[in-house]
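Cont'd.
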Amino acid sequence: MAKIVGAITTSHVPAIGGAIARNLRTDPYWKPFFDGFAPVHAWLGKVRPDVAVIFYNDHGLNFFLDKMPTFAVGAAPQYTNADEGWGIPTLPPVAGDPHFSWHLIEKLVGEEFDVTTCQEMLIDHACTIPMALLWPTGGAWPVSIVPVCINTVQHPLPSAARCFKLGEAVGRAIQSYDADKRVVVIGTGGLSHQLDGQRAGFINKKFDLEFMEKLPTDPLWATRYSIGELVEQTGTQGIELLMWLAARAALGGAAKTVHSNYHIPISNTAAGLMLMERMAA
Amino acid sequence: MQAGTSRQIPGTTLFDGAQAIKGYALNKMCYSFNSAANREEFKRNEDAYCARYGLSAEQREAVRHRNVLELIAAGGNVYYLAKLAGIFGLDVQDLGAQQTGMSKDQFKAKLTAAGK
């Protein structure tokens, strides 16, 4: 059976793509952020996942407002990055795993998560930047992926509690897959930031740090908040913490933080990183 | 009309159903800027490009002013507006500075201060 080796949650700020392209990893502005990934690289080298299930939010590359699914699951043989309009370099395509995707889709719909299925799906920076951060191999990706997109563009958004339940269902689906796969679950986005309105530049370090502290040991903590309350606490884009909740829920059970990093600012964002593992039973 | 999840947060417009209806033409135009050819066409003839997408007078003026708060008031969604801003060479710190009435350096200092 497939096994979940751990969960990784990370910010996906577009400017990171520019910094990677210009090789600014050791630049004073960027170093505190990029240095946070070294322990994760060591861990990935040790556990060697075959597949990554990635909870992310599309920013107007694959989905427009004409058709906006709340939850969408990729079922493509390959996922391609493309021009997002404001100029970060595109990254090489990533292999899919359609058989595994359809297993997840069958299980999710069976559990009454009525997801949109995508046999063609462009992946934006919210998928590719975490890939490039976790596997800085210049695009020779060592994993195939199943992207799971959660809408954060168009309100109403699914509640934190609902995203958590989706994550739990994804976790059960992964572990019921009859193949010897090592699966890492990834949640991308956040932490607190707001790009739009007079409140642009809003960052909430106190809330972020509490969220990160609770995530492994008391993961339901954030699900007590409504979407409106979470936007108030974390900003209009900080709501991307929904991806972190889903990834944590997929990991399941009692968990521990293996590594974390938090740095303000990267672009307009409080950048966070966590690596979590299940506690031994 | 207020969507069920909406609440009043100062300086914040949640992009709900009402905004989605109001901003559809503007956001659809901005979405087209994923294509480099479309960005070039916009630069060649901004009036014709805006007319083709049926922008309202309010939306056309907001684009003319390159004013983010006006664009949001006209129904713009920040994820699509970012593609328009890219045409003008504006990054998210430029947008933040403009919306908060700060210089770009002041806005960056505010972000850095949030980490203290």
